[in-house]
Amino acid sequence: MTVVDPIAPPMVAMAMQALSECVCEQLEEVGAGPTCWCGILPGAAVAWDYCAGECSSDRCGIGWVRLVSVFPYGIFPTPQPDDHCTLPLAWAVEVGALRCMPIMVDGSPPPPALMNEVALNQILDARALHWAMKCCDLPVAANVYTPLGPDGGCVGGAWQAWLTLD
Fold first, then answer.
1. Which of 16, 94, 117, 135 is surrounded by the most beta carbons within 10 Å?
2. What distance in Å separates the CA atoms of residue 105 and residue 122, rounded to the nearest whole number?
3. What CATH code is carried by the domain that includes residue 15?
4. How many CA atoms are closer than 13 Å to the CA of 108, on its beta-carbon side?
5. What's the pLDDT tens digit per position in 62-90?
6. Cα–Cα distance between 104 and 88 in angstroms, integer?
């Protein structure tokens, strides 16, 4: 029987930490710039409060890695029932970023040039998130980038990806 060291962090936790560090670095270096907050988020959804919160140094937004689901697989990354607990696990993660979105002032929409900048920043962040997954030296398989928002003064998007660590 294999004894698991209860003090050592599981391999998936270390991989998610490494991936979040890559995400934060890439958003700052090749994305739309540094965020207010960047790291691993728990739960079934991202709290957008971090995006539009108070921030210093003209930073705005949030970058994250979040566990979405875990499942056994026979052919990666397709879920497969595992009646004998012999199949490896795939860890579905979300890798995303949200930035501040200009809002209407006195009933007037933001100027087109500002909206163009916001759209280009969203594209830069999508590329930076993908680059983080490629460059992090982890067994990551990326799938689809999905735009998020605008809502509550935030806009951005997230990649669906899988880690295989067994």
1. 16
2. 22
3. 3.30.70
4. 6
5. 999 999 999 999 999 999 999 898 999 99
6. 50
Task: Please tell me the pTM assigned to this model.
Answer: 0.90
Phi-psi category of residue 85: left, alpha or beta, with phi > 0 → left and psi -120 to 50 → alpha? left
Q: Which domain holds residue 130?
A: 11-164
Cα separation, 52 vs 166, whole angstroms = 38
Residue for token pair 């210093």: 56
The rounded Cα 18 to chain-centroid distance in angstroms is 12
CB 155 within 8 A of CB 163: no
> Phi, psi at residue 62, to the nearest 5°?
-145, 145
| Structure tokens given for 50 | 């971090």
Does some domain include residue 101? yes
Averaged pLDDT score across all residues of the chain:
90
Is 117 within a domain? yes
**Residue entry with tokens 């090749």:** 30
In this structure, is residue 93 part of a structural domain? Answer: yes
